[in-house]
User: What shape does this take?
Amino acid sequence: MISDFIFERAPPAAHERFRSIMVQAKARGAILVKDHRSKGVTMEPCSDWLADALSRCGIRVQRLTCPSLWASRKRIQEVVFCFCNLWAMSPKTRDFLRVKAGPWVALQTEHKGFRVYERPKCNYRWFLRQCDQVWDFGFDFCEGSSSIFLPTMWHPLCMMPSTPPRKTLDVVLLGQEDESRRYVRRALSRDKSLTVRFSNNLTPGASMGMYRAARIGLMIPRQAGNFEFHRFSAYAVSYTHIVALASPKMDSGLAKLLSPMVDFVDSCEAMVTHLMELLRDREALDAKIRAGHAWFASQGLPLLLKHLLEYSSKSGDDGATRDQNLVLFENAIKDAKAGKLARNLQSPNQPGGKIKNKMMRLMDKLQS
Assistant: This one.
């Protein structure tokens, strides 16, 4: 099970922090930063999944854009969940520090050596280190961050048709072209017996339509060693078998876990060869697709966070020490709630100690 794999890979301290954050989200509610884009690959399907998964944990979820968070006139006590690539579109370090009062969870979408992670003006790594926990889709964690392997880039199972859709394409590959994708496209285009589609920057609806029409979906990640769960889950809910380009950095345990739906190959040449082998017997491939669909549906992904919370709660009953930073944070919140009383109990020389000041003046009058 995916939930078992995630739980076993996380150290006890990460479980404690996860549990504490989720408990606070139950008490105060959660804010989920939403994607404003309507074209290309957006994070909204993943946001839909996350909102549903949090709701199943008994957490109230409010969805806001980054600008609406920065416009807040008060410090935000709710737990904020933000996909990092959405924060990177409009990074506001000052506003972030101004509004942050409760825990923030960074939903990791980039890694070292790639795209916005390395932009000096983006402060992407700064954001990861400022957040109380990073739910990461890979194992190459950012130094200085509180990271845990917990991919959240899933598509809701409600997007999965009740019956396998009619397949009119053999192969589909979506995304921005690079050298590897160009090689595969040219190699497959030489075989006129195949129906192949390559495209980029489609609307979400058009992308899903392309996925559902294809027997095989290709995955050639731009970030070597990191598995693109958002594309994997889009294929998975579309009854599409996956052939993915692995790398020496690919985690062998993760590859084994996903093997019912994904065939990993070591090179672009091997990818083309394997595709041809699969398409020689389309009936056998269709049976493979049905078996993969059954496995994916059995993983209970809508309840992933709930199961992890239950696991973490059970593991916390054996005397594990609670995360000290979050304990301090909870104590600060309690102090803030009792702020008026605390101010009234200040010494006479401190501003705001009105009750004590009056009592001291009354005592002076009585003594005189």
Summary: Residues 2-156+301-316 form a domain with the Rossmann fold fold (CATH 3.40.50). Residues 12-28 form the longest helix (17 residues). The longest strand covers residues 169-174. The chain has three domains: 2-156+301-316, 157-297, 324-363.
